[in-house]
UniProtKB/TrEMBL annotation:
Keywords: Dioxygenase, Metal-binding, Oxidoreductase. This is Lipoxygenase domain-containing protein. Residues 63-94 are annotated as: Disordered. InterPro entries: LipOase, LipOase_C, LipOase_C_sf, LipOase_plant, Lipoxygenase_dom_3. It comes from Tetracentron sinense. GO terms for molecular function: metal ion binding; oxidoreductase activity, acting on single donors with incorporation of molecular oxygen, incorporation of two atoms of oxygen. The lineage of its organism: Eukaryota, Viridiplantae, Streptophyta, Embryophyta, Tracheophyta. It holds the Pfam family Lipoxygenase.
Amino acid sequence: MVTRRILCLFVCVEQSYLPSDTLDGLKRLREKELEILRGTGVGERKTFERMYDYDKYNDLGDPDSKEELARPILGGKEHPYPRRCRTGRDRSDKDLLSEKRGSSVYVPRDEAFSEVKQRTIKTNLISSMLHALRSLHPSIIDNLPSTFTADTLSSMLQELIDNVAFPSFTAIDSLYQGGLPLSTPKNGIFQSFPQRIKNFFKAARDYILQFKTPKMIERDRFSWFRDDEFSRQTLAGLNPYSIQLVTV
C-alpha cells in the first residue's frame, strides 16, 4: 500500500497590508476578524471577548445609591470627551442614560494583563497601601479599629488625603530615591491584617520601603506636565506606552 504525505507549509510574513492590498487567501479571514473586533453594539461584554465597540462615559456616577452621586455623561456635544470601551451593563434605575457601575472594568482580551502581571500589580498595590498607612501620624494608627466597615474605610481614606501631602517635587522624588523607614505597628487595624502582610512588616523592619521609579519619570521627571503627555495618558489609560506610531 502506497501512502501519500502532503506537507502543508505555513509561512508567517512580518508585513502589514492595507485592506485593499490584502492577499487573496487572507481576505475572508481578515473580514471575519474585523467583524469580531467591531462587535455588535448589543449585550454585555464578557472577559473573554475581544470586541472594541465604544460608548460614552455614562458610568461615572451612582445615582441608584444617592442622588448626589449622579454625574454628567462625558462625550457628545455637551461634554466632548474621548470614548471608552463599551461594557453593555444594565441601565441605571433612576437615570436611563447611565449604566450601573460594575465590580470590574471590561478590557478586551488582547489588552488584558497576564496573570503574572496582575499578581505583580496586586503586590505593588499592597506595598503602596502600606506605604500610605505608614505615612499617617502614629496616633492615628493606634486609634484605628481592629475591624472596620465601609464608612470607617471611607473616613480612613479621607484621613490619608488630609494628612499625606507633598510640599515639593523633591518630596515626591524621595519616594523613589530615599524611601520610608518602617517599624512594625503593634496596635489597631494592623492586628487584623492577614499574616502575609504582617510578615511583610516584620521582614521590612529597620529597612526602607521604597517605590519603584515609573518608567515615565525615569525618562523625564516632568513629562507628565506637558499637554501632549497628558493627552497620551488620558487616551491610553493605565498603559500610555500602548500607543505607538502606526507604520505601513
